[in-house]
Every structure is written in structure tokens, then in C-alpha cells.
């Protein structure tokens, strides 16, 4: 297995962005979802995009967003890809891809084997399936809560392309997760924070080093 791609999600400050770039992460995630402590508005997204330039690719995270919200986020963040993290259907994913002409990632909440099976409905429609831990029904956020799921549920994904692993990944466990799953991409948010929304540059560096060394 080659080195995995690395995404640091929920970037909202220049300091966190710089840490992701210098640590050679492949993607940063910009969250366009106001209930999230990691939400960035158009002004903040534009400033981060200007600072990043071509040094790192930017993925915008949207949760059941309308087209105008997505269009504003894509323009402000100069996004390279869109990540859909809500209840979007395969048909909706296809519509977003056709409308905006960008790669579309679909987050798949997982708690059981059946969730992994259902993800096949999106394969061939989404450019990347991001297997993430399913949050409780009454949770305010669809992700970024530090939860993880049973990685053995992804055994059948080994050797396949077009997917990634998220949910509770941290500098302490990402190497083990990669050895178990052989994920082509790993995505962290709360695992590199000292508090919700507060990214720690040292944790970002440690995460990237652990993933790259796995």
C-alpha cells in the first residue's frame, strides 16, 4: 500500500492551515454548516483560500445544503471538491456533480455492516465514499464528534479505490487504523483539536507524521 492521502477537516484559522500545508497533508476541509463550531463564512473561506493558493486542495463540507449555499461556498473557498455530509440521495449527489463540475465526496455514516452495504448505492456516483462514524440520532452535528466505528466492517473495501476513513482518528490511532483497513485516505477533525473547533498545529503535524509513517 502506498502512502495514504490525508485530509484535515474543519480548518478555520491561518495557523491551522499553515500546519496542514507544512505537514504535507493533501486536503483541508472547510465546513459550511453554521451549527458546527468549525463553520467558516464566505469571508473567512475566501481568506483561507487566498492564503492556501495552490499549495493544498480544499474540500467544502455541506450538510443538506441548497444550491445557492453550495455555489457561494465553492466560489469563496475556491473549492477543489465538495463533500456531502447529510441525507443526500445518490440522485442528489449526481445532480451536485453535474451542476458544479467538481468531484463529489459522500460521507457514509457507519455503525453496522448494513451501512457499509448501503454505501454501494453511491459507488460510481460519488467520486469518493467517506466512511464515518454514525452519530446518535439526537446529535446536533453529523460528524466531528470524535466517535469511531468498528473498522473490521470495512474488510471488503481493502484493495478498492475511491474511499476514505473518518471518525475518531487521532495521532495515536491512525497508524493502527491504516494497518487494519488499508484506507486510501484518512480524514481527521476533532482528533487534532484541544477543544471543539480549536485545531492544534502540533497535533496536525503528529497526525500527518503518523499517517505518512504507517
Automatic annotation (TrEMBL):
The keyword Amino-acid biosynthesis applies. GO terms for biological process: L-tryptophan biosynthetic process. Residues 6-209 form the N-(5'phosphoribosyl) anthranilate isomerase (PRAI) domain. InterPro entries: Aldolase_TIM, PRAI_dom, RibuloseP-bd_barrel, TrpF_fam. It catalyses: N-(5-phospho-beta-D-ribosyl)anthranilate = 1-(2-carboxyphenylamino)-1-deoxy-D-ribulose 5-phosphate. Pathway: Amino-acid biosynthesis; L-tryptophan biosynthesis; L-tryptophan from chorismate: step 3/5. GO terms for molecular function: phosphoribosylanthranilate isomerase activity. Keywords: Amino-acid biosynthesis, Aromatic amino acid biosynthesis, Isomerase, Tryptophan biosynthesis. Belongs to the TrpF family. This is N-(5'-phosphoribosyl)anthranilate isomerase. It comes from Qipengyuania gaetbuli. The lineage of its organism: Bacteria, Pseudomonadati, Pseudomonadota, Alphaproteobacteria, Sphingomonadales.
Amino acid at each position: 500500500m502506498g502512502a495514504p492521502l490525508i485530509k484535515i477537516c474543519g480548518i478555520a484559522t491561518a495557523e491551522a492551515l499553515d500546519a496542514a500545508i507544512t505537514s504535507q497533508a493533501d486536503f483541508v476541509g472547510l465546513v459550511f454548516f453554521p451549527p458546527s463550531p468549525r463553520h467558516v463564512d464566505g469571508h473567512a473561506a475566501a481568506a483561507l483560500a487566498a492564503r492556501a493558493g495552490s499549495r493544498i486542495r480544499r474540500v467544502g463540507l455541506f450538510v443538506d445544503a441548497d444550491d445557492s449555499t453550495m455555489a457561494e461556498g465553492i466560489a469563496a473557498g475556491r473549492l477543489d471538491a465538495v463533500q456531502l455530509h447529510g441525507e443526500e440521495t445518490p440522485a442528489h449527489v449526481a445532480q451536485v456533480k453535474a451542476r458544479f463540475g467538481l468531484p463529489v465526496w459522500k460521507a457514509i455514516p457507519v455503525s453496522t455492516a448494513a451501512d457499509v452495504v448501503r454505501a454501494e448505492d453511491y459507488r460510481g456516483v460519488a467520486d469518493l465514499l467517506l466512511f464515518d462514524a454514525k452519530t446518535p440520532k439526537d446529535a446536533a452535528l453529523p460528524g466531528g464528534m470524535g466517535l469511531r466505528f468498528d473498522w473490521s466492517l470495512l474488510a471488503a473495501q481493502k484493495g478498492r479505490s475511491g474511499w476514505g476513513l473518518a471518525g475518531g482518528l487521532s495521532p495515536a490511532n491512525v497508524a493502527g487504523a491504516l494497518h487494519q483497513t488499508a484506507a486510501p485516505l484518512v480524514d481527521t477533525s476533532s482528533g487534532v483539536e484541544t477543544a471543539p473547533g480549536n485545531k492544534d498545529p502540533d497535533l496536525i503535524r503528529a497526525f500527518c507524521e503518523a499517517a505518512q509513517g504507517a
